[in-house]
Write a structure and sequence with these properties.
Length: 57
């Protein structure tokens, strides 16, 4: 819903990567599911044990 309110369907194509990441960091409701980037790992969704292991490394 917030995505639509901000009109991001048309704005995203014009935004650079830094602007996109700043927007996502400022508003967690824009992230459909949790994504963890930890070193060379990318974890989609939330499984506590996987996140714990990835963050320990």
């Amino acid at each position: 819903m917030h995505y639509r309110e901000l009109g991001l369907s048309t704005k995203l194509a014009e935004m650079d990567e830094d602007e996109t990441f700043a927007l996502l960091a400022a508003d967690g409701m824009l992230v459909k599911r949790p994504v963890l980037l930890a070193g060379d790992k990318v974890i989609f969704g939330f499984k506590e044990s996987e996140w714990r292991d990835a963050l320990k490394a």
